[in-house]
Amino acid sequence: MSSPTSSTPSRRLSLDTWAVLLALLAALLVRIGVINQVPW
Questions:
Q1: Is 28:37 a contact under the CB 8 Å cutoff?
Q2: What pLDDT sits at residue 10?
Q3: Which entry of 5, 7, 17, 27 is 20 to 30 Å from 33 by CA?
């Protein structure tokens, strides 16, 4: 067990990681036109 990520579980991502992935996914979906841009 000498992997560099031994201190953090590989299957459980942190909340910050999920937030970043969700934001990138939402931006990608808006970019390709799946989601309409929110008129803010």
A1: no
A2: 55
A3: 17
Name which of 7, 35, 39, 9 is nearest 22 in CA terms.
Answer: 35
Distance set, CA 17 to CA 10, 20, 25, 38 (Å):
12, 5, 12, 24
E strand or H helix at 30 = helix 15-32
Residue 17 has pLDDT above 80, yes or no: yes
Cα distance between residue 19 and residue 25, in whole Å:
10
Query: Do residues 37 and 30 make contact, with C-beta atoms less than 8 angstroms apart?
Result: yes
Phi and psi angles of residue 15, each rounded to the nearest 5 degrees, phi first: -65, -35
Distance CA 26, CA 5 (A): 27
* pLDDT score at 30: 81
